[in-house]
Amino acid sequence: METSTTPQAKKSIGALVAIVLGIGVVAGVGFTLHKVSADPQPKLYATKIGTIVAADGKTYNHYTIADSVYADPINSKAHGTCATCDGGHPSWPSYGPYTDFVLPAHSYVTVTLTVYDGGIKLNTPYFASIVGTVGGTANFDGVDKTNLAPDGVEHTFTLHGLPTSTQDPLFVNVPLPMNTDAEMKAYNADPTKLPIGHKVTFSFITQGAGHYVWNCEYPCGDSTYQGFGAVMGQLGYMSGKVTVVNG
Hints:
With 247 residues, the chain is of the alpha+beta class. The protein is built from 3 helices and 13 strands, in the order H-E-E-E-H-E-E-E-E-E-E-E-H-E-E-E. Strand 2 (47-53) and strand 3 form a beta hairpin.
């Protein structure tokens, strides 16, 4: 015997289908957001080397971290041995092997960056100045400076956070000196041959615990947004995280 579906039954079935589809969409969005927000980068924890008396007369625990900057992600070793895996890009410059730093609160932190990339010119000369470091300086290959020429920069390390009432402000900007065309010649011919590079050392004092980000302010991306597209917005290449923790 043939049966017919009443309008009310059709509405119930339609509502059930809509609910099932809705759950599927929410689950899919949740999975996607989890995957996007997942942080594949290993964390670099600061190493304590002793104590130090700062210019303010206070004694701080002294910690260090060290990292590098490369013209490509393969040498950076921040993306495994396959630069094209998991969305990697072999033509993109990259910090490495770490882009996720964990620092202690209320401490004196010294950062050493060895940099191996070339450069052209900053879009904004402000980022050629050292800001937020102890003494307002950084040491470049043994020489203390307060700024670099805007056309002599390869990348910047610019640490900042959104101003909130729940964490202390923290802002540090250090421009990194470019390797000249002559210094990059061997690398350009054979990317396994890195230039000698330049060593940059600077220190700053952390305040309370909080979550911060750092990024490069040199226009090393594609032509989108005046050189700030592509790599410039990619976590693990020219941007990363800094977590300041208690204890």
